[in-house]
Amino acid sequence: MLDCGIHPGLEGMDALPYIDLIDPAEIDLLLISHFHLDHCGALPWFLQKTSFKGRTFMTHATKAIYRWLLSDYVKVSNISADDMLYTETDLEESMDKIETINFHEVKEVAGIKFWCYHAGHVLGAAMFMIEIAGVK
């Protein structure tokens, strides 16, 4: 799975990515390209409140900024507690489930080989090259 963001113009469950046709438990790998909310804003919810048991990767800089950006999002959102997708505790617990990858470092998970390049978009932003069964 590539990225796990929220829709910036919507709130609550409506802001989540549409995953109704997939089973999170069947996803082996989740790659996050960068820290903007539309790319990682649903990650604490996905990691803490779904059946996802795979591995999650992002760059070191993205992970550091993700922590502070999403903490700020939780604190300043004008959303009722009932409509919040996750809490500060969920965010903190998600940090333990996120692994980091260096640029040009090759990793392999469940037969999926991947590595990342500088995207140049924001600090830590990555473009991922993915290889499955020899096909990139």
UniProtKB/TrEMBL annotation:
InterPro entries, A to Z: MBL, Metallo-B-lactamas, RibonucZ/Hydroxyglut_hydro
Domain (Metallo-beta-lactamase): residue spans on this chain: 1-131
UniProt-recorded name of the protein: CPSF3 isoform 5
Protein source organism: Pan troglodytes
